[in-house]
Amino acid sequence: MNIDRRLFQLIKKERAPFILSIISGSIASGMLIAQAFYLSKIIDGAFIQKSAINNLIPLFGFFGLFSILRMLFNWSSQTEANRGTLTIRKKLFTLLTEKVGLLGPIYTRSVQSGKLSTTLLKGVEALDAYYSQYIPQIFFALFTPLLIVAAIFPDDWISGVILLATAPLIPLFMILIGKSASAMTEKQWKTMSRMSGYFLDVLQGLPTLKLFAQSREQRKSIEESGENFRQATMRVLKVAFLSSLTLELVGTIGTAVIAVGIGLRIMKGQIGFQPALFVLLLTPDFYLPLRQLGTKFHAGMEGVSASKEIFAILEQPAPLHSPGVPAIQAEPFVRYPLILNNLSYSYPGSEVAAIDNITATIAAGKTTAIIGPSGAGKSTLINLLLRFQEPASGSITMNGRPIHEIPLEEWHREISWVPQHPYLFNATLKENILLGRADASEKEISDTLEKTGLLSFVRTLPNGLETMIGEQGSRLSGGEAQRVALARAFLKNAPLLVLDEPTSHTDPELEAALRSSILELMKGRTTVVIAHRLETIMRAEQIIVVSKGRITGKGTHDELIEAGGFYRDALKLQQEECV
Ligand SMILES: Nc1ncnc2c1ncn2[C@@H]1O[C@H](COP(=O)(O)OP(=O)(O)OP(=O)(O)O)[C@@H](O)[C@H]1O
């Protein structure tokens, strides 16, 4: 029997519908026996006893009643199992999305998005058959045959013994075949999720592939990947057919042996017609739940395979945070500096520290610019501040408390984050802006549009703010997307601003407009900016120079010029633009 411990744990918490399903199904099994009993009585009465029709009417009534009751209990059993399954699916989906949210963008960037979405959607869906069919069937495959044997024994113990002797053959074959089926289904699932990941990756990179004339090659790879999946599926289907053929064979042979035995005993007058018919009617139903277990085993296997990927996500170590600790302070955030104490971080699998023993103070209500060459660790430092990652050692404290003690949601509520490439959803422009604050008034929205220079752009749109902006904001230019991100930050009005300054807008007018919006946003906030422009850097009250994960300089523009090193050299080289 393949009962996955972790999947079964989920049932324990939602046991009521499953218990009801099993009770209803068990009653339906009892009704089945009553149905067979009355049918055998009717046939015996009509053809052997030649009873008058009046005597048969009550028998017909009981037969009809038990048939209807059986149908109702079977329906209720399935409905309850579906209800329980739906609750578990919803719960798992919520747990998964919450966990992925908790693991943050560092995790989602490290896995293929196609593979992740297959696990989130298809994986959870694949559990349907496991919970609604396979698990209840394990009980029925034990209970119903035993009930039938108990009903048969008083009339015909010989058939009862034959049934009991042949029944274990079915689970035995199932275990033998099931072993290879599990491995194959797992391979099939892995092939499918790999194929989805690959397919989405190629789809997203299609323009790049076309540009490099590689799309034909990729088509071949997709075809190969599809062929692998087809072969894996065919192997699983072959085993499933083989298994159902074997189980069918055991059932048919068992039924034939019993039929021949009963026939001989009727001829010898050792058993009456009615009990013989009763046993014969029930024999196929004795094997049926066992055979069905075989079929449902294969349907449920897909769920077990999918669950391995689901639990791999759920069991990922999440960044630390203790939701029980109350907010760090009742007073505004902005009053406290952020202290970085001996902060270190290495990416999983990397031997070199991306952040190496950094100690610094980020002054409250002021601007701190982080600068350094590419790969220096600037984004990693910001990610630690945003708590997308947790430091390997050291801590970030505010008002004497490590920030990881603040509930994550609360921490994020206090921060506005404007990344270089903001994520825009395939929704209206207004919905994208309102991500900053869902309950912003029309006046606040129009003020924000003005502050970010979006007002004139919105006027050119066919549906104004209600215009759909395409997947990942594909209908907006880089500069417009940046302004939408700024608009979100204006609306959010959080005391801590984390900003990755855009590097590449060639339009000088747009650049000036963006810069003045950013300066306005910075006013009165604790700002940490990965700065690329000289003007931003010079305006900062503190500049932190990072190189190879370490701080190599700290101070104001004048102090750093005085000190020489990377800062002065970089300024010399790039009088104007990026440092
Ligand atoms: N997800 C990751 N997995 C492994 N290593 C990573 C990952 N992200 C960054 N790194 C490595 O960590 C180091 C610091 O990277 P980081 O992105 O913080 O640098 P950066 O200063 O922001 O660079 P840039 O200015 O080019 O964006 C680099 O050596 C980089 O290769």
From TrEMBL:
Membrane spanning residue stretches: 20-40, 52-73, 134-152, 158-177, 239-264
Keywords, ordered alphabetically: ATP-binding, Cell membrane, Membrane, Nucleotide-binding, Transmembrane, Transmembrane helix, Transport
Subcellular location, record wording: Cell membrane
ABC transporter domain sequence ranges: 338-573
Record InterPro entries: AAA+_ATPase (IPR003593), ABC1_TM_dom (IPR011527), ABC1_TM_sf (IPR036640), ABC_transporter-like_ATP-bd (IPR003439), ABC_transporter-like_CS (IPR017871), ABC_transptr_CydD (IPR014216), P-loop_NTPase (IPR027417), Type_1_exporter (IPR039421)
Major localization listed first in the record, in broad terms: membrane
Source organism, top-level taxon: Bacteria
Membrane-topology annotation of the record: Multi-pass membrane protein
GO cellular component, one term: plasma membrane
GO biological process assignments: cysteine transport
GO MF term (any one): ATP binding
Pfam families xref list: ABC_membrane, ABC_tran
UniProt domain ABC transmembrane type-1: residue ranges: 19-302
PANTHER family associated with the record: ATP-BINDING CASSETTE SUB-FAMILY B (PTHR24221), COMPONENT LINKED WITH THE ASSEMBLY OF CYTOCHROME' TRANSPORT TRANSMEMBRANE ATP-BINDING PROTEIN ABC TRANSPORTER CYDD-RELATED (PTHR24221:SF590)
NCBIfam families registered for this protein in UniProt: CydD
Name of the protein described by the UniProt record: ABC transporter, transmembrane region:ABC transporter related
Origin organism lineage: Bacteria, Pseudomonadati, Chlorobiota, Chlorobiia, Chlorobiales
